[in-house]
Write a structure and sequence with these properties.
With 230 residues, the chain is α/β, with parallel strands linked by helices. The chain folds into two domains: 168 residues, Rossmann fold (3-Layer(aba) Sandwich), CATH 3.40.50; 54 residues, no CATH class. It is 44% helix and 16% strand. The protein is built from nine helices and six strands; from the N terminus they run βαβαβααααβααββα. Helix 4 crosses helix 5. It is globular and about 50 Å long. The relative contact order is 0.21.
Length: 230
């Protein structure tokens, strides 16, 4: 039996010009995960990353801390995140002006909470299936490509594969193996911690979710600022 570990990237740079780069906290989270892998003697036979900068940076910091810096990283496009900017703009076209969008968030008094509320509404529109012709990738197409990418890792028996990706891809994989309905799957998505680890067991083509969003590497630090969701 093999194992697939899907790791959500470390905290990205919310509100910065380059969201895709890890924040300082994101680097710490990724380093702690690598230390935990080494301390608990986790097996790592293969590393797969999504194509985003934050995926690569998380994997690099983690593997360095785990003493696995020579481990090759294979990029798999199927583990890329959905286009959150497009989803926001289709919900509210005026937000294509980034400066205006940032000003609106800043004026709200709680930018992260306001963003979460608006993003939840935008995602609900996307996943409803009622406006599929407006998106470059529908929710159903996104879910299918993520599940196909996950299934593609099961072709070699007995491996311990670690995948560094995003919350959307992990949620899609969870839905594909548990059957959670479309209108509830983002209830899972919003709870996924940065560098949280979810595990699947596989044998032949059969996949079973065995752990979701584990974070022992963060809990051991007793630092509340390490528990981030964006």
């Amino acid at each position: 039996m093999g194992t697939l570990h899907l790791v959500r990237h470390g905290q990205a740079s919310f509100g910065a010009d380059n969201y895709d780069a890890l924040s300082d906290i994101g680097v710490v989270q990724s380093t702690l995960l690598g230390q935990w892998i080494a301390q608990t003697h986790q097996t790592v036979t293969r590393v797969v990353i999504g194509p985003a900068q934050r995926h690569r940076q998380t994997a690099h910091a983690c593997l360095q801390a785990a003493g696995l810096h020579n481990t090759p990283m294979h990029v798999e496009q199927g583990f890329n995140e959905f286009n959150h900017e497009e989803i926001l703009i289709r919900y509210e076209p005026q937000w294509e002006n980034r400066a205006q969008f940032r000003q609106m968030l800043a004026a709200s008094g709680n930018p992260k909470r306001t963003f979460q509320r608006l993003f939840s509404q935008a995602v609900a529109r996307w996943t409803s299936g009622q406006f599929d012709d407006e998106y470059s990738e529908t929710w159903r197409a996104f879910q299918q490509r993520c599940c196909t990418a996950l299934q593609g890792l099961t072709h070699t028996a007995g491996e311990a594969v670690w995948v560094f990706t995003s919350a959307g891809a992990i949620s899609a994989a969870v839905q594909g193996t548990t059957g959670i309905p479309d209108d509830r799957i983002f209830d899972v998505n919003w709870t996924l911690l940065n560098t949280g680890v979810s595990q699947w067991l596989y044998q032949s083509d059969r996949l079973s979710l065995s752990m979701l969003n584990t974070c022992g590497h963060l809990q051991s630090q007793r630092r509340q600022d390490l528990f981030t969701y964006r």
